[in-house]
Design goal:
Blueprint (H helix, E strand, L loop, with lengths): L23 E7 L8 E8 L2 E11 L8 E12 L2 H22 L13 E5 L2 E7 L5 E10 L10 E7 H6 L2 H25 L1
Antiparallel strand pairs: 1-2, 2-3, 3-4, 5-6, 6-7, 7-8
């Protein structure tokens, strides 16, 4: 099923230029084993969508004399209203984990496999699933293809967020603040429309 005719296409964001992009609404940097100076997690805003971009430098002496090359780019695009939905799904799963831990205090806990959840936000099919090794979450947009020119037509956009980045390094708080800001903007717009 090709939904691209219904959904506004957004251009790929190149990692070597993203740090100066005026559409950036959120910027965070976290440690990463591959990235020489850490990995940037950026969120851009365009056409009522959030564009999640990863950018990092790594050593590659065959590319240039400095040996540093930018990698990354657009990982996933989601409607701005979808961010709260995504966070709610992860919150619900984390609550299940905490509840199982309290109920089985002192014993090893075997949680049921988290098969994830699917939903449609403004016509875009989104999935939130737990990583196979249980170390984070994967957000997929099944309505959008990856921006790689050599990509298979069936490859959909996805963003992998480890528990370490989300909860230990603080990206969860960054996402919560952005969702709260978006909710406040939507509420203000609704108030303005009702007063008009």
């Amino acid at each position: 099923m090709n939904t691209h005719t219904l959904i506004a296409e957004l251009d790929d964001v190149k990692p070597e230029h993203v740090l100066r992009d005026p559409r950036v609404v959120s910027r965070a940097i976290f440690s990463d084993s591959v990235a020489r100076h850490g990995k940037y997690y950026l969120i851009l805003h365009e056409q009522q969508h959030y564009i999640f971009v990863e950018a990092f430098q790594h050593v590659n002496k065959t590319i240039n004399s400095s040996g540093e090359e930018w990698s990354g780019g657009t990982q996933i695009e989601i409607p701005e209203q979808a961010l709260s939905w995504v966070l709610s799904q992860i919150d619900d799963h984390q609550a299940q984990i905490m509840s199982a831990g309290r109920e089985n205090s002192g014993r090893s806990v075997v949680l049921p496999i988290y098969s994830g959840v699917s939903g449609s936000v403004l016509g875009e099919q989104l999935n939130v699933v737990r990583m196979k090794n249980d170390s984070g979450y994967v957000l997929e947009n099944r309505s959008r293809r990856v921006h790689l020119p050599w990509a298979n037509a069936n490859w959909h956009q996805k963003l992998e967020l480890t528990d370490q980045v989300l909860f230990e390094q603080g990206y969860w708080l960054v996402l919560k603040k952005l969702a709260a800001r978006q909710a406040s903007i939507a509420e203000d717009a609704e108030l303005s429309n009702s007063e008009a």
